[in-house]
Amino acid sequence: MKLTILTDNTAGGNFTAEHGLSYLIECDNQQILLDTGHSDVFLKNAKLLDYNLDEVKTVVLSHGHWDHGNGLKHLGNKNLICHPGSFIKRYRKGGKENIGLDLTFEELEERFNIIMSNEPYSISDKIIFLGEIPRLNSFESNSTTFVDRNQNEDFVIDDSAIAVIEENELVVVSGCSHSGICNIVEYAKKLPE
User: Fold this and answer.
1) Could you tell me if 63 and 97 are in contact, meaning their C-beta atoms sit under 8 angstroms apart?
2) Cα→Cα distances 3→89, 97, 98, 139, 174, Å
3) 131-185, pLDDT tens digit by residue?
4) Residue 70, Cβ neighbours under 10 Å: how many?
5) Per-domain boundaries in the chain
6) What is the CATH code for 2-189?
7) Are 63 and 83 in contact, with CB atoms under 8 Å apart?
8) Cross-strand pairs, 127
9) Which residues are CB-neighbours of 169 under 8 A, at least 6 positions away?
10) CA angle, 158 as apex, 156 and 160 as ends, to 5°?
């Protein structure tokens, strides 16, 4: 498995950074894009690294926040794997600006083959989208700074991750881990081999 950071909050060398995240995961003869940041920075940095993201067939959205998915505007004709809750309007408590995705479900459906799953979804024999993460630990995900459009607390239930199982080893790749990194890892450890 190889993981390449295409964008995050820290730039190095000739690369550009932005608030957000995008990883390219190479494993099991596949390239999977986990998140897209919030602009086309991931594409620019991929080009500097000699990656052609046109060849990537699958994009996984870790959760439906702008800084992880607004770069989807710059892609299309791919599978988009995500939790069904990724498309809600969300706000910071006391805020009026949507921090969810700019594109609606309908707009994304025109560009992508959307695969939504609450449950673990096998991308390949070795790569699994975890779906909805159970919040079982008493010390994680107890409070939130987010609300939905009805002002209900938003605990980002769509937050997910990717598990890679290779040579009897488990690698977990997450975005923000709003569901709690310990909850994510414990859930991934229960996956069938």
Assistant:
1) no
2) 30, 32, 30, 29, 12
3) 999 999 999 988 999 999 999 999 999 999 999 998 889 999 999 999 999 999 9
4) 19
5) 2-189
6) 3.60.15.10
7) yes
8) 164
9) none
10) 110
Kindly report the three-state secondary structure assignment for every residue of the chain: CEEEEEECCCCCCCCCCCCCCEEEEEECCEEEEECCCCCCHHHHHHHHCCCCHHHCCEEECCCCCHHHHHHHHHCCCEEEEECHHHHCCEEECCCCCCCCCCCCHHHHHHHEEEEECCCCEECCCCEEECCCCCCCCCCCCCCCCEEECCCCECCCCCCCEEEEEECCEEEEEECCCCCCHHHHHHHHHCCCC
Q: How far apart are the first and last CA of the chain?
A: 17
- Close Cβ partners of 152 (under 8 Å, ≥ 6 residues apart): none
Q: What is the residue type of 135? A: R
Cβ proximity of 174 and 181 under 8 Å: yes
> Which residue in this structure is represented by tokens 């550009």?
16
For 72-82, letters b (16+ CB in 10 Å) and e give bbebeebebbb
pTM of the model: 0.95
Pairing assessment for the beta strands 112-116 and 78-82 based on DSSP bridges: parallel
Q: Residue 153: exposed, middle, or buried by beta-carbon count in 10 A (0-12, 13-18, 19+)?
A: exposed
With CA atoms as reference, report the closest residue to 19 among 93, 129, 99, 95.
Answer: 99
